[in-house]
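Quick one:
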Amino acid sequence: MPATNPFAEIADRYADHPPRLRRPLVTEAVGRVIPFVDTAGCSVEAYTPTRVAVRLDNRPAVQNHLGGLHAAALALLAETASGLVVALNVPPASAPLLRTMDVSFERYARHAVQAEATLTSEESDRIRSRPIGRIDVDVTLTAPEDDETLVSSALEWAWIPEERLDG
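Output:
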């Protein structure tokens, strides 16, 4: 059986659903592939090969000592959005791996936060056409109500053939 890309399959499976149904279905499906996304309570708001947005609501399990979103939860959000936009594009026999992550906390995150990661069409095509490579992805985390930047991050992703992970 040929290798498949589970992230691209999720996008294809729910592409024709209306947004109000698509968001929870995609979130649930991604959580089955990456259990920690479900554990953390992330919600996938946008899911295309060139744009992924992931939201995290402020709740006790992800709070810091001041009642805001914990720094690690915010970093998780940046990693999740950028990882998904890369994962949607990797060839079926390849796997994405995070190499580096730079996170700048610009404002205190009191409420819900949404991370948005984007690729250009050219970047998406480049990932799809190569079994191995690297790409830098910038992610901005905002307060959805007022679009204020709370966190900026830059992540370097690699993708390699899955068979190279066996050794």
